[in-house]
Write a structure and sequence with these properties.
This protein has 10 helices and 4 strands, in the order H-H-H-E-E-H-H-H-H-E-E-H-H-H. By secondary structure, it is mainly alpha-helical.
Length: about 280
């Protein structure tokens, strides 16, 4: 199993790094949209296992509108309110006859009077992951910020996996994920902090804030991992899918990023005006 994980990572990681660093935000938006659609349909399959049906096509369509709006909002300049809080211009309405960012949710709710699994899929999977597009479109440092977020999760997951296998003795959440240990959790946290130290050379973010972003991103990522484990446990399955050898499904691979990406984005949005 380990060699499959390593082989899959060796194939995927260079492509993702190249896409983030040298691809345009529009290309990143397209790739993010594809990942979200794959993750959504795996999420819906988990719901099917416990009898929760979803409006798949409608939810997927609204998710793509979210991606489109994140791309537009990442492509406009930011200003400041008198209190120093960054605001994105034109965030309440964009032209072209398409719904605004907030309007997507309004239209979505109108389309599904009975919310159910569709609403949770859009809110828990599509919406937070769509911030990858916004993060990438954040000026010249955007691509590096997105790569930083990906790497703190990759390194954290890798540290947790190998340390947990080697010396892990104290279960973290045995009812949700029996193989996760406190030893692996601590290793994951410090692995992400090490990434913050390395990326200090490539970002203009002050080191204390960079370490804080790494720390909060790691914590959010581990919470996202446990949430997905809870979904799988309720559905009675080990993996959300089988698309990625050694890793399971797409949702298994991105579960930590679901919360880590918006946490890093909002930290940067709030505190970048102060350094």
């Amino acid at each position: 199993m380990t060699w499959k994980r390593v082989a899959t990572a060796a194939v995927l990681i260079p492509g993702v790094v190249g896409l983030v660093l040298w691809g345009s935000t529009a290309i990143v938006a397209l790739a993010t949209g594809l990942v979200i659609l794959l993750a959504l349909f795996e999420y819906f399959a988990l719901g099917d296992a416990i009898g929760h049906r979803a409006y798949r096509f409608w939810t997927a369509t609204c998710a793509l509108f979210l991606i489109y709006q994140q791309w537009l909002m990442g492509d406009v300049p930011t200003g400041r309110l008198s209190g120093g809080i960054a605001v994105t211009l034109r965030s309440w309405w964009f032209g072209g006859g398409l719904p605004s960012f907030e309007g997507v949710f309004f239209v979505f709710v109108l389309g599904i009077a009975a919310a159910g699994r569709s609403a949770s899929g859009l809110i828990l999977v599509a919406f937070p992951l769509s911030f990858a597009v916004r993060l990438h479109g954040t000026g010249r440092e955007g691509p590096v910020l997105l790569l930083f977020t990906l790497v703190i999760i990759w390194v954290g997951d890798t540290a947790a996996y190998f340390v947990g296998r080697a010396i892990g003795k104290h279960p973290l959440a045995p009812h949700l994920s029996p193989k996760k240990t406190w030893e692996g959790t601590v290793a994951s946290f410090f692995g992400s902090l090490a990434v913050g130290l390395i990326f200090a050379r490539f970002l203009t973010v002050p080191l204390p804030h960079l370490l804080a972003m790494a720390a909060w991103g790691n914590v959010a990522g581990q919470v996202g991992d446990l949430l997905e484990s809870a979904f799988k446990r309720s559905a009675g399955v080990k993996d959300s899918g089988a698309l990625l050898p050694g890793h399971g499904g797409v949702l298994d691979r991105i579960d930590a990023l679901i919360l880590a990406i918006p946490v890093v984005w909002y930290y940067w949005l709030i505190f970048s005006q102060r350094w």
